[in-house]
Amino acid sequence: MNPLLSVEDLTVEFKTSHATLKAPDGISFKVFENECVGIVGESGSGKSVTALAIMGLIPKPQGKIVKGKIIFEGQDLLRTNTHPRGTKISMVFQNPLNSLNPNIKIGKQLSEVLEQHYGMSYKEAIEKVTTIMRQLGIPEPEKMVYRYPFEYSGGMRQRAMIAMAMLCNPKLLIADEPTTALDVTIQAQIIQLFKKLKTESKTSILFISHDLSVISQIADTVIVMYAGKICEISSTRKIFEKPLHPYTIGLISSIPTMKERKTKLKSIEGNVPSLVNPPTGCRFHPRCSQKMSICTEREPEEFSVDDRLVKCWLYKGVD
Known about the structure:
By secondary structure, the protein is an alpha/beta fold. The protein is built from eleven helices and twelve strands.
């Protein structure tokens, strides 16, 4: 089966007044139809930039895609003038309060999507906006469409952003940290909403988060990123049963559980390296307790282990 989205050897370069850095740096992955792929990693690992690259929204002139392909439905988005942004590919951004215009009513902002892409009249667009807001659990949508963003709670603003992204029935929905800054109860509601969209609308989802516990609740496949590189790609079940990469093991070990009483949570020693001058070899080796001499010299190859992909020299020769 052909993937809906295929990212191949993608590298994005950013130039500052002092240096040049790359994040993501040579990453490859696939998203299939009706699949939810979760990307997890610490801040600065390149998760959000990957999403912006897919959307064709890399800020210029500071940022530039210098290598790779982004193939969607068989078409390389980096070599076309007709990007399907807003129609076939939509994105829910991290902070809905910053993404919505505070001076324009919610209904007007959402209706503009339908007016722009489908040429609907304002009345027709408002009717569809009201319908999808009701489907997404926004109470009294007939009244809420005429309210401003500040009159919505955090969870309701996020639902409004999801409604905006779903208005054109996209085949791929990218969600960049959609549950950040929401309390646990609202987080659970938003996650259930994404599950409902995947099941009922058959929408593929690329879900980005720094929180593995959130990823575990929604993703079919997990991509673990570190310092611009992909460490491991695995099914969600397998990655939590037996993580392979030392970084993934550290992430999962740091998640608190109800089964054990601990006086101190485990943590990964050290800090994320600077992307201006990243370590040679494996970028995780300065923090890795299992590093070998080859780890400091050569970037690890991609190994296939138990139907998973892992970039770590520990698995050389392991099938």
